[in-house]
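Sorry to interrupt, but I need a hand with the structure work. Could you write out one complete protein record for me, on any chain you like? Just paste the record in under my message, thanks.

. . .
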Amino acid sequence: MLVDTGSAQEVDEFVSAVDQVVGLNELRWIYLTHCDHDHVGALGQLLEQAPNARVALTFPTMGFMATGPDPIPRERASMVTLGEQVTLGGRQITPLRPPTYDNGGTAGFLDHGTGIYYCVDFLGAVLPSMEDAVADDIATVAHEDFAAGATRWASLDAPWVHAADRVKFDDSLSAVQDLQASALFPTHGPPIRATLSRALDVLRGLPGSEPPKQRGRAEIEATLAHLLGDQTESTPA
């Protein structure tokens, strides 16, 4: 089973990697957490080249995809429901909505075989180096860097969190702790294992706090120039 399909900018590389690890003819399930562009980039190509694969997704995500250029054939779609355990290819999973998300169709899942919670964009982090970003465990990243990066990510990806009910949001974080997952795998950050309680505490103060100040154009362009190796060009305002 493949979880999400990467971004549109890396389709060929992504499909090649899947073929090397699993084999496209052997792929049976694509679990689609939601339909943002950085999660569905290679979906169309994979459905063409992996003829035995079906897509597991929520009803809202199916609806969102139906309005785009690459709707999922209905005969290859299998709906999942939040909180209801389902078997996909012999794997027992329970789809779950994480405490923070940026898309109404979002559904991560708890894998009951491994104990891993695939928590989508929740607990992602903007980290200071690529080495930190691809770490095998968030415990190897300086906690102050993770705390700053996770706070920034949550504010960008789920800006509504600053207006969330403090008690209800805290309950949603406690529910993640109660899963007793062996690890959390965020899409946009390193895996979280033994330091989950500490990671959750980073986000507890977000409801009721002030959102970060919007960056100005000059700061944004400087950041893009740094990330893209000074390949960006200025455009008229």
Remarks:
- Residues 143-157 form the longest helix (15 residues).
- Helices lie at 11-21, 43-49, 59-66, 130-133, 143-157, 166-178, 196-203, 217-227.
